[in-house]
Automatic annotation (TrEMBL), chain A:
One GO location term (cellular component): signal recognition particle receptor complex
Residue intervals of the SRP54-type proteins GTP-binding domain: 630-643
Keyword Membrane attributed: yes
Complex and partners: Heterodimer of an alpha and a beta chain.
Protein name per UniProt: Signal recognition particle receptor subunit alpha homolog
TrEMBL record, chain B:
Domain of life: Eukaryota
Subcellular location: Endoplasmic reticulum membrane
Primary location group: endoplasmic reticulum
Protein known as: Signal recognition particle receptor subunit beta
Membrane is among the record's keywords: yes
Topology within the bilayer: Single-pass membrane protein
Region called Disordered, residue ranges: 106-134
This protein's UniProt keywords: Endoplasmic reticulum, GTP-binding, Membrane, Nucleotide-binding, Receptor, Transmembrane, Transmembrane helix
Organism of provenance: Neurospora tetraspora
Gene Ontology MF terms: GTP binding
C-alpha cells in the first residue's frame, strides 16, 4: 500500500512523516528539485495550491508520488507508493491530511524563526484518515467521503474511541448498533458497512419506507429525544444495557426505553446476521468500554461537546469545505463596504502593505507579459513565466512603499535568475582537463574530449565552432576539427579556411589545430567516429565536430542525429540558436533536444548574433524554458574573440530593462 | 494653523447657511442648528480644540503605520537587528539538519522534557532538499554566567540554482539601481558556516562532490573578497566576516579528516582559480569597460594575485579568516558539532 507519507516545508525540514516501507530519501529529493526548483514538469501551475488530483503525479524509480502544496505556509504534502499499485483514494488522503494539518498546526507554522513544531499527536489523525479512506477505496464506492460527513447525525458517533487500529473495529460496531435505529450516518466508515445485509444499513433504508406512518413519527420523536437529552448519561446507560442484554434478542435494548415490537419486526429481515453480529461484539465489549469512558464527550448547556477524533476530523474537513464554497459565492457586502475597501486598496497600492489578489495582479501581469513579448520571448514561454509569477504572488503582502509593478518586477527577476542559472558548473576548461588528464587515482583512461555542434541552417554553427576553437587554442589545447557537414557544397572548404586562419593567429600561443575531412557524400556519423579514433591515436585534446544544418521539423534529417550521437559519443552536444529567431526557437530547441535518442539530450546552447538584437534577448528565455538546458556561450560579434560566457545577471538586466 | 481654521470655519458656516435656507421643516431645522452649533464650537480657537487637533495630526500617521504594517514590522524589524550566522554549502551537506539540531538543543535546555524527548532532541530532524531560506533564533552563552545573546542562524538552499540567495546576503544589491548597498546592511552577518560532506569529498571516489563544493566555496570567498575591496574606504574596512568550513559526516567511514579536507579544497580552489582566469569573458563585460580600468587587475582573482598555489591563509589579506573544523551532525560518537557551535558562539 502506501510506502511513505511526508509533510515537509519548503525549507527542507520534515515536519511529520509516516513510513510503512523504507523509501530512499533520493526519491523525495529528486521530486523537489525536479518539480519545484527546476520546474521540469511540463504542466503549468505546478505551484498551485490546488488539490493533489490537479497536480500531475511524479514518477521516480518505481515509485509514484502524489503531492499537494500549501503555498501560504510553504508546506508540501507527499504520498509515496509503488507505481504498480493503483490507489484511487490517495488524492483524497493527501487533500484531507492537508486540510487537517493546516487547520491544526497552521498557527504554529506562521511563527517566524521556528522550524520545529509539535505534532506528535498528528499520528492519530493520520491513522483515522488512512483507515477511513482505505475502506472506502476497497469498497470501490463512488460515494464521496465528505458526503456523509454532512449528514445530520454524524454526532451520534461521538463516543468512538481514538482510532487505534484494533479498537476502531470494536469501538464503532457497538455504537452502530446503539444508534442504528436512529438513522446512523457513518456506516460507510465502519467495517461491516460493506455488507448490505447488515441490520444497521438495511433496517433503516429498507424498512423506513413501507413502515406505517406512526412508526415514522415515533422514530422521529425518538431522534429528537436522544439529541436533546443529556446524551452522555443516556449513551452510557444504553451501552451498559447493551452489554447486559447482548443476547439473542439484542434489538430490544434501547437507551430511551422506546424499543418495542416494531423493531423486532424490522429485525426479521436479517435476523441471523443481526444476532451473529451482536454476539461477536459481546466478546469485545469490555475492552472497548474502558476506552469509551476516557474519550467520553461532556455536556455543556445541554449541547454535546465533541471530543472524538473522527468527528473532529470530519468537522475540520466539513468546515474547510464550507469555507471553500462560501468564499466562492461570497458577494461583496453593500455599497459602503466595497467603496471603503476600494479606497483602502488604492491607498495601499501606493503605500504598500497590500495583500495581492488575482484581480490586482491581472492587469499588471498583462503589462509584464507584453514587456516580455517585446523582448522577443516566445508567447508560450512568456505566458507560463507570468503564470508562475502570478501564482507565487497571490496572497503576498507588498513591502512599504512598494507598488504592485515593482513587486512583480522583483518576482520576475528572481524567477528568471532561477531559470537561467545552470544546475551544474559549466566550466568547460576544467571539464576538458578532467577528461584529457584524469587524476592518477581514478581508473579512467585519458582520451580526447569530444564536442559537437548542431543547429538549424545558417545560424552560425561553423563560425561558433571556430570561435570555440580559438578559445581552446589560446589555452594551449591541441584541437582537431572534424568536417561532419558532408552535404552542403563548400562546407569543408569553409572549415579549411577557418583552420588556416586559426593556425596563423595562434601560432605564437602554442596551440595546434588540424582539420579532419573525408570529402562530401559520406555518412557524417562514420566520419565523426573516425575523427575521434584518429584524435585519440594522434594525441589531440579536443575534437570539435561540425554537422550539417538541418530543419528541426524534417524527420528524415533529424533522425540521423541519433545515429550520430551513438557513433561519435560526444561529451558535449551544443546547439547553436540565433537570437534573431522568434517564436520558432521553442520548437527548434525542443526538437533538437529530443532527437538524440533516449538518455541523451543537449548539453548546452550557444546563442549567436546577440549583438544584432540589442536588448531583445528573449530567445534565451524561450529555449531555456522549453528544454531546461543551460546556455553556455553567447556570440557577440564577428571576430574569433567575440564569444562570451553567458552571464545570468546580464541577461536578466537586459530582459527587464524598460528602455 | 489659524488661517486654515478660519478658512474651514467660513466654508462650514456658508454650507450651514445654505443648508438652513434650503430646509423648511422644523425638525431638520433643529438638527441643522445643532450641527451648526457643534461646528462653530469645534472651530473656535480655544485650547481644547487646538490640542485635540494637534493630537489627531500627530497620531494619525503613527496609527496608519500600525494599521498597515503592524504585524510585520513587529517581528521583522526586531529580528533584522540581531546578529546572524549564515549557513551555506552544497546540497546534501547537512545544513538544514544542523539547523534543526541546534534548534532542538536550544529547546531541550529551556523546557523540561521527558525521556523520549531527550533522546529525540539529540538527533536532527529528517530533511530534504531546501527551496527557501529559513532562519532560526538561538541563544548563545559563551559561559555559564555570561549574558545570553540572541542570534539568528540563517539556512540557505544549496541547490545550484538557488545559491544566489546565500550570496545576496553577503553582497546585497539595491533593487532599484542594481548597485551594491553599503556594508551597513550586511553588518549583521557575523560569520559564514560553510558545510560540506567530507565523506564524498575524496577526488578518487566516483561521485566526488569536491568540485561542486569547491565551486560554491570559490564563489562565496570571491563575494567576500569583493565586499572587502569594494567597501574599503581609506583605512576604514567593513566588519570582517570569518568563514568556518565545517567538514560534516565525519562519522562515516569514507570521510576525510579536517586537515585533508583543507588540503583538497585548497588544491581544487587553485585549479578553479586558474581555469577561471583563462576562461572567456562574461557576456556583460563590454570592450570599453576593459580599457577604462574600472576593473582592477586581479579583481576576480581569489587570494593573493599571481601566487602559485592557493591557500586559505591568503584570504587574511582581505580580512577573511578561514578555518576548517570537522564534525558530524548525526551519530552520538565522534566529534559531533560542538566545535562548530563554539565557533558560532565566539563569533556572535
Amino acid at each position: 500500500m502506501l510506502d511513505t507519507f511526508e509533510i515537509l516545508t519548503t525549507s527542507g525540514v520534515v515536519l511529520w512523516s509516516r513510513t510503512y516501507a523504507a523509501v530512499s530519501p533520493a526519491v523525495v529529493n529528486n521530486f523537489i528539485s525536479d518539480v519545484f526548483i527546476e520546474e521540469k514538469s511540463a504542466v503549468a501551475g505546478t505551484k498551485d495550491g490546488a488539490s493533489a488530483s490537479a497536480n500531475p503525479p511524479y514518477k521516480y524509480d518505481q515509485h509514484t508520488l502524489r503531492w499537494s502544496f500549501e503555498k501560504e505556509l510553504g508546506i508540501i504534502f507527499v504520498a509515496v507508493y509503488r507505481s504498480l499499485l493503483h490507489l484511487s483514494w490517495i488524492d483524497k488522503l493527501v487533500d484531507n491530511i492537508r486540510t487537517i494539518f493546516v487547520n491544526l498546526y497552521g498557527d504554529q507554522l506562521k511563527k517566524p524563526n521556528v522550524t520545529l513544531i509539535q505534532c506528535a499527536r498528528f499520528d492519530n489523525y493520520f491513522d483515522q484518515q488512512l483507515q477511513e479512506l482505505e475502506k472506502t477505496g476497497s469498497k470501490s464506492d463512488s460515494k464521496d467521503v465528505r458526503a456523509f460527513q454532512n449528514e445530520p447525525l454524524s454526532d451520534d458517533l461521538s463516543d468512538m474511541p481514538p482510532p487505534l487500529p484494533g479498537l476502531v473495529r470494536g469501538g464503532r460496531v457497538p455504537s452502530n448498533s446503539n444508534t442504528s435505529k436512529q438513522g446512523d450516518s457513518d456506516f460507510d466508515t465502519s467495517p461491516n458497512a460493506s455488507r448490505p445485509t447488515t441490520p444497521a444499513v438495511a433496517s433503516h433504508l429498507l424498512v423506513a419506507k413501507p413502515g406505517p406512518g406512526g412508526k415514522m413519527s415515533r422514530r422521529a420523536r425518538k431522534l429528537q429525544n436522544t439529541n436533546s437529552a443529556p446524551a452522555s448519561s443516556g449513551d452510557e446507560a444504553s451501552a451498559k444495557r447493551a452489554k447486559a442484554k447482548a443476547a439473542k434478542k439484542g434489538r430490544k435494548w434501547d437507551a430511551d426505553g422506546l424499543a418495542d415490537e416494531e423493531d423486532d419486526v424490522q429485525l426479521d429481515f436479517s435476523t441471523s446476521k443481526a444476532t451473529s453480529d451482536s454476539e461477536g461484539e459481546a466478546g469485545r465489549r469490555p475492552a472497548v468500554e474502558e476506552v469509551d469512558a476516557s474519550t467520553w464527550g461532556s455536556t455543556t448547556k445541554g449541547k454535546f461537546v465533541l471530543r472524538d477524533l473522527g468527528d473532529e476530523v470530519h468537522s475540520i474537513l466539513a468546515s474547510a469545505e464550507a469555507k471553500n464554497s462560501a468564499s466562492k459565492t461570497d458577494a461583496p457586502t453593500g455599497l459602503v463596504g466595497t467603496g471603503l475597501s476600494a479606497i483602502g486598496g488604492l491607498f495601499r497600492n501606493v503605500v504598500g502593505g497590500k495583500v495581492l489578489t488575482k484581480e490586482d495582479l491581472d492587469k499588471a501581469m498583462k503589462g509584464m507579459e507584453e514587456h516580455l513579448l517585446k523582448k522577443n520571448v516566445a508567447r508560450e514561454a512568456a505566458v507560463r513565466l507570468c503564470e508562475g509569477v502570478e501564482k507565487e504572488l497571490i496572497g503576498v503582502k507588498t513591502g512599504s512603499f512598494e507598488s504592485i509593478n515593482t513587486r512583480i518586477q522583483k518576482a520576475m527577476e528572481v524567477s528568471l535568475t532561477k531559470m537561467l542559472t545552470p544546475t551544474s558548473s559549466l566550466d568547460l576548461l576544467r571539464e576538458i582537463d578532467s577528461i584529457t588528464s584524469p587524476p592518477a587515482t581514478s581508473l579512467r583512461k585519458a582520451r580526447p574530449y569530444v564536442m559537437s555542434i548542431v543547429g538549424v541552417n545558417g545560424v552560425g554553427k561553423s563560425t561558433n565552432l571556430s570561435k570555440i576553437c580559438f578559445f581552446l587554442l589560446q589555452n594551449k589545447y591541441k584541437v582537431l576539427i572534424a568536417a561532419g557537414d558532408t552535404f552542403r557544397s563548400g562546407a569543408v572548404e569553409q572549415l579549411a579556411v577557418h583552420v588556416r586562419n586559426l593556425k596563423e593567429l595562434t601560432q605564437r600561443e602554442g596551440g595546434k589545430v588540424e582539420l579532419y575531412q573525408k570529402g562530401y557524400g559520406k555518412d557524417a556519423a562514420a566520419v565523426a567516429k573516425d575523427a575521434v579514433a584518429f584524435a585519440a591515436q594522434e594525441g589531440f585534446d579536443v575534437v570539435l565536430i561540425d554537422t550539417a544544418g538541418r530543419r528541426h521539423n524534417d524527420q528524415r534529417l533529424m533522425s540521423s542525429l541519433e545515429k550520430f550521437a551513438k557513433f561519435a559519443q560526444p561529451d558535449k552536444i551544443l546547439m547553436v540558436g540565433e537570437a534573431l529567431v522568434g517564436t520558432d526557437s521553442v520548437a527548434q530547441a525542443k526538437n533538437f533536444n529530443a532527437s538524440f535518442g533516449a538518455g541523451r539530450t543537449l548539453d548546452g546552447f550557444i546563442i549567436s548574433k546577440c549583438d544584432t538584437v540589442g536588448d531583445m534577448v528573449g530567445t534565451i528565455v524561450s529555449i531555456v524554458h522549453a528544454t531546461n538546458v543551460p546556455v553556455l556561450f553567447v556570440g557577440v560579434g564577428q571576430h574569433y574573440s567575440d564569444l562570451r560566457n553567458f552571464s545570468v545577471k546580464w541577461a536578466v538586466e537586459k530582459l527587464l530593462s524598460s528602455a | 494653523m489659524d488661517t486654515t481654521i478660519e478658512l474651514v470655519t467660513t466654508t462650514a458656516v456658508a454650507a450651514a447657511t445654505t443648508a438652513t435656507a434650503a430646509s423648511n421643516t422644523s425638525s431638520t431645522e433643529h438638527i441643522k442648528e445643532l450641527i451648526k452649533d457643534l461646528l462653530i464650537a469645534s472651530l473656535q480657537p480655544n485650547k481644547t480644540v487646538i490640542i485635540t487637533g494637534l493630537l489627531i495630526v500627530l497620531l494619525f500617521p503613527i496609527l496608519l503605520h500600525q494599521f498597515l504594517h503592524g504585524d510585520e514590522s513587529g517581528s521583522s524589524s526586531k529580528n533584522s537587528s540581531l546578529p546572524s550566522i549564515l549557513l551555506a554549502g552544497p546540497s546534501g551537506a547537512g545544513k538544514t539538519a544542523l539547523l534543526t539540531l541546534f534548534e532542538k538543543r536550544a529547546g531541550r535546555k529551556t523546557s523540561t522534557s521527558t525521556e523520549t524527548d531527550e533522546k529525540k532532541s539529540t538527533e536532527p530532524a529528517a530533511t530534504h532538499t531546501s527551496q527557501t531560506p529559513v532562519s532560526v533564533q538561538l541563544n548563545a552563552a559563551s559561559s555559564e554566567e555570561d549574558k545570553v545573546k540572541k542570534f539568528l542562524l540563517i539556512d540557505t538552499p544549496g541547490h545550484p540554482k538557488l545559491r544566489s540567495t546565500a550570496l545576496s546576503h553577503l553582497l546585497p544589491l539595491d533593487p532599484k539601481t542594481g548597485r551594491p548597498l553599503p556594508p551597513s546592511k550586511t553588518s549583521q552577518i557575523k560569520g559564514v558556516l560553510f558545510l560540506l560532506d567530507a565523506s564524498t569529498l575524496s577526488p578518487s571516489s566516483p561521485d566526488s562532490s569536491l568540485s561542486q563544493a569547491a565551486t560554491y566555496l570559490y564563489d562565496l570567498l570571491l563575494a567576500l573578497q569583493h565586499r572587502y575591496s569594494r567597501y574599503t574606504k581609506g583605512s576604514k574596512h567593513p566588519p570582517s566576516i570569518p568563514v568556518l568550513i565545517a567538514a560534516n559526516k565525519l562519522d562515516l567511514f569514507t570521510a576525510l579528516p579536517a586537515s585533508l579536507v583543507k588540503k583538497e579544497l585548497e588544491a581544487e580552489l587553485g585549479r578553479i582559480r586558474v581555469s577561471r582566469s583563462k576562461g572567456l569573458l562574461d557576456s556583460g563585460v563590454r570592450e570599453d569597460d576593459l580599457g577604462a580600468g574600472e576593473k582592477e587587475e586581479g579583481d576576480d582573482w581569489l587570494g593573493e594575485y599571481g601566487s602559485e598555489r592557493f591557500e586559505f591563509r591568503q584570504m587574511v589579506e582581505f580580512d577573511i579568516e578561514v578555518e576548517v573544523v570537522g564534525g558530524s551532525v548525526v551519530g552520538g560518537e565522534g566529534p559531533g558539532c560542538e566545535g562548530w557551535w563554539r565557533w558560532v558562539v565566539e563569533r556572535v
